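#struct-help
A.M.: can someone run this one for me? Single chain, 194 residues.
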Amino acid sequence: MDPTTSIKKRDAVATRAAILAAARQRFLSESYDSVGLRDIAGDARVDVALISRYFGGKEGLFRDVLSHDDKPDLFREPRTIAEVPGFLAQLVVEDGSDDRQLRMEMFIIMLRSASSPKAGQVIRDLVHLDVLGPLTELIGGDQAELRANMLLAILMGIGVLSTIMMVDNFGGTSTDRDECIERFRCLFEAALTC
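D.P.: on it. Structure tokens below:
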């Protein structure tokens, strides 16, 4: 293998990562419509043309910022509807602070930019693809989409409480943790069956 090829490839990966990191920080503090590609390029110390090259433009970059997740198929893990309440309860209680912080930052980015027609469509597409679609499919039957929406609303409320408002007493001791998991399981089960 030609050594110059691997160096260029490594630079491309690093450049793409720098652009994503700069964009994430910008979208975290400003709305989609307020963020300029030149600002992101300046923060990443790259030529603005590279954003179009790697992401196809601002909309593609925004999509990649929201899609950049270590667990893209998280809501496809439960295989049956019976597993959903326990899976969601486990997710809430055992969610590591780093994972939770990243998800809440993504939530803030979505809230900050949801009023933009372009960003709003990207957000709706991704939420449906990554969360509501898998849950709706798994739930099946009458009102599956409505019930999936209700589960997401509960999850988001818990996420806001624990991350933004810092109300988090969901898993101190192992006994407390087990009690919280069972109570959340019951809550999610009720949301599915009522």
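A.M.: thanks! Confidence is low (pLDDT under 50) at residues 4-8.
D.P.: also worth noting: The chain has two domains: 3-66, 74-193.
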